[in-house]
Amino acid sequence: MNWRANLIIVIVVVLAVGIMLWGRSSAEEKAPPLGGAGRTWMAGVDATIYSDYIWRGLHKYDTSVSPSAYVRFPSFCIKAVGIAETGEDGGMGEVDASFEYFFSVRQLDFSAGYIFYAYDESPYSNTSELFGTVSWKTGTPIYPSLELYWDVDEADALYGRVGVTYADHIESLSYKLMATLGAATDNFPETYFLVSESGLIDFEISFSMTIPVSEQISFRPFGGYSALVNDNIGDLVKDDSNGYGGASIHITF
Q: Which residues contact 147 (CB under 8 A, 6 or more apart)?
């Protein structure tokens, strides 16, 4: 049985287990309200500006603006994100639509879902990904995570990353420090970096804080550093390491 079949089986099993656990939990107790006034759903919009938009070690866009909107329920979320470069030569680079299903088992938080990338003024081709993630609630501010993305269309490749996050708060202000290390099968760098090279791809460290403005509005400044750790890939790109920063406004309804 090849790796594609194995991955499909894993995703199906994760979804099936999650549905059974969520169904049993729902039968035992009413889902907690997310949006206030007894609502079990919540909607929100974001407006984010990036000094540079970095995606898995790839410098995709220069200074960019990214609007997004989502609707979240107790066990799943539907989201759309746009990314547009600023300046005279800018324009809408891409629009990403995603569906994410999530559940918890003891100290583990799981999610699985689908992302569609629609590119416009960009050298990349439209593609789709299936993904799964897991993070471990250790009972401390530090928790590890694992993410796996399978491009089922254009690249037909796997990209995964491990991470560790330190998350805490000071009164109403919360902050997060995160470090990740990514790796991929050879079709991923061949599609996005034009070199067939499996193994480690990128390292990233980032910091963000969330500052509440009101019950429905929050402000989030952030910054980070991303670097390609594969020398064969780094030699072929203009920017193999990038610092970036930005801020976003988040409004919930």
A: 131, 132, 133, 160, 161, 162, 163
pTM: 0.85
When divided into structural domains, the chain yields a total of: 1
Q: What's 16's domain CATH number?
A: 2.40.160.40
pLDDT digits (tens, 9 = 90+) for 212-245: 999 999 999 999 999 999 888 888 888 899 999 9
Burial 158-180 (b: 16+ CB within 10 A, else e): bbbbebebeeeeeeeebbbbbeb
pLDDT tens, residue by residue, 82-117:
999 997 777 888 999 999 999 999 999 999 999 999
Residue 91, token pair as written in the block? 């324009």
Neighbours of 139 (CB within 10 A): 8
